[in-house]
């Protein structure tokens, strides 16, 4: 586990952060193994307690991911935003679109550790590139920004 902590210690730290701040962030580093390339991503843990799906962002570094997710988390916590799949929103200077993340417990392991499998939902905030396109528009860029859910039609 991270920094020599056990899984139980790590989950307890997450729960303390959720109690103190309303949510925590989990950044997953990229990895290459015999099954392929697994790009980095970041997600919230704790928005479930506020009646919201957890939020995922891919294709950004830790600082940008944190800014986006903390901004959205603040909007959710203050009641300014009810986030759901299929909506557009802005956060931390990014124009975003949300999609559903089915089977999110298979991807968001820390949230599964806190809430249990099947007891939370998630949306992915997908950001527009420099041309203003989403990954499935124009020339697909899902390598840069992997998509965890179904692409809207």
Account of the protein in words:
It is a single chain. This protein is α+β, with helices and mostly antiparallel strands and 153 residues long. It has one domain. The chain is built from 3 helices and 8 strands. The strands form 2 sheets. A 6-stranded mixed β-sheet has the order 1-4-5-8-7-6. It has a two-stranded antiparallel ribbon with strand order 2-3. The longest helix is centred in the middle third of the chain and has 17 residues, at 62-78. The radius of gyration is 15 Å and the shape is globular. 31% of the residues are buried. The model has no long low-confidence stretch (mean pLDDT 90).
Explain the layout of strands and helices.
Layout lengths: L6 H15 L2 E5 L2 E3 L2 E3 L2 E5 L8 E5 L3 H17 L9 E4 L2 E7 L8 H7 L6 E6 L26
Parallel strand pairs: 5-8
Antiparallel strand pairs: 1-4, 2-3, 4-5, 6-7, 7-8
Structural class: alpha+beta
Number of DSSP helices? 3
Number of strands: 8
How would a crystallographer describe the biggest sheet? 6 strands, mixed
What would the keywords be for this entry?
153 residues, alpha+beta, six-stranded mixed sheet
Describe, in short, the structure shown.
The chain is of the alpha+beta class and 153 residues long. 25% of the residues lie in helices and 25% in strands.
């Amino acid at each position: 586990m991270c920094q020599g902590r056990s899984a139980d210690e790590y989950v307890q730290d997450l729960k303390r952060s959720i109690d103190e701040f309303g949510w925590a962030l989990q950044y997953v580093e990229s990895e290459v193994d015999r099954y392929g390339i697994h790009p980095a991503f970041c997600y919230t843990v704790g928005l479930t307690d506020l009646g919201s799906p957890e939020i995922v962002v891919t294709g950004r570094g830790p600082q940008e991911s944190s800014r986006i997710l903390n901004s959205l988390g603040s909007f959710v916590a203050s009641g300014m935003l009810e986030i759901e799949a299929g909506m557009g929103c802005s956060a931390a200077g990014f124009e975003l679109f949300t999609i559903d993340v089915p089977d999110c417990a298979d991807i968001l392991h820390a949230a599964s550790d806190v809430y249990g499998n099947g007891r939370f939902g998630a949306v992915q905030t997908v950001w527009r590139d420099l041309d203003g396109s989403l990954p499935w528009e124009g020339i697909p860029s899902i390598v840069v920004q992997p998509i965890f859910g179904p692409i809207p039609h």
